[in-house]
Amino acid sequence: MIPDFICLSGWSLVRRIVVRTTYRRPLNRNSTITRNRMNDFKRPKSFATASHSTGKDTEVMEIVNREASNIESTDSEPTLVPGFKFPLQSRLDVERLEIAIQNSKDVRKKYVQFLVQRKPKNMVVEKFITTIFSDDALISYNLNGSNTPGRPKRPMKSYSVFYDCFIGLLLEVGRLKKRLTELRAMHKSPQTSTINEIRTIHQKLRTIDVKYYQQRCIHPAKPLKISGFPMPLQCEEDIERLELMVNRNPKLRTQYVEFLRCKKAFSVDISDCFGKFFTGEAMVNFSWKTTNSNRSNRKERKIMEQYQIFTSCMLEAWQEHGIDAVKLDSEMRRIIAILSKRRYVANNRAQ
């Protein structure tokens, strides 16, 4: 049974969704298309349940199902909900998905998982639903259904695809937050497995819950700190010490990753915010990949690529920003070039 507060959220959600399809140009009641659509919707008692199929609809659904199976077998791109391509383009696609959800718990589970994985962290749910259904698919529905001449509507509240599956998205957020509270209360000094699970939950919540993302990553309630390491690091010894502790202490690693994540804005390049983490003086004896061993008058530089604080931690922190190994490699090369140029200019001025 769905809790009352979730139901209230659901009704509010559906009311917001229908606004997008409310203001449409009125149909000509005398047109053939309008009469056909009105005849299709004139079923006074069918709005009371979620099973809306008639003999005509069932025949159409069988045809659409056969077409969908052909699409699925030839499509090279895997889909999380087999037989369906999103956004759904028509009412028939919505009805077919509804029937599949009602008849199969597995399809229902995959659909909810698809919603969880697909939802951008910075998009509210009522806007997100319009990325799952096209305007043409949504135009046939409103909250309670209607037989108004010229603008017949089906009730969204009786469809799982619109209502309780999206409520499942909200329930997933609640479940993750509850589990996070339990893990934090288990031990004062949590084990590595517990810390890893906490880290995974943080990543999921940041992805599907915009409020959690804003609290944790944009406007943190408390100043972010890394225990024992005032940032930015000022010297090479601090970098070595941070690398050592990140490898030994999962809790401190989590603190460092969170600090990286929250101090870099989504639209900012790594090279533009690198100074928040390390000063130029601390990076003097570091290079990204190769060392300058041919020059005997210079100290051999340390390779940043061998340090977790410069590689895996940054990839984990900025994965949601689109940073992969290739992008990180490019940005780090750029950072080293910028730092080298600054030192060169400073040395010339000193002379």
List the helices and strands and how they pair.
Blueprint (H helix, E strand, L loop, with lengths): L3 H15 L13 H10 L13 H20 L16 H13 L1 H14 L6 H8 L2 H4 L2 E2 L11 E2 L8 H23 L5 H17 L1 H9 L17 H13 L1 H14 L6 H4 L12 E2 L14 E2 L8 H6 L7 H26 L1
Parallel strand pairs: 1-2, 3-4
The total of helices stands at: 15
Largest sheet: 2 strands, parallel
Give the number of DSSP strands: 4
**In terms of structural class, how would the helical and strand content be classed?**
mainly alpha
| SSE succession | HHHHHHHEEHHHHHHEEHH
| Major β-sheet strand ordering | 1-2
Radius of gyration: 28 Å
> How large is the share of residues in beta strands?
under 5%
Q: N-to-C terminal Cα separation, in Å?
A: 77 Å
Q: Into which percent range does the helicity of residues fall?
A: 55-70%
Uncertain runs are: 1-14, 17-27, 33-54, 67-79
Global shape: elongated
> Could you report the average pLDDT, rounded to the nearest whole number?
72
How would you explain this protein's 3D organization?
The structure is a single chain. By secondary structure, the protein is an all-alpha fold. Among the domains are: 91-161, no CATH class; 167-216; 236-350, no CATH class. Helix content is 56%, strand content 2%. It has a two-stranded parallel ribbon with strand order 1-2. A two-stranded parallel ribbon has the order 3-4. Helix 1 (4-18) crosses helix 8 (164-186) and helix 11 crosses helix 12. The longest helix is centred in the C-terminal third of the chain and has 26 residues, at 325-350. The N and C termini lie far apart (77 Å).
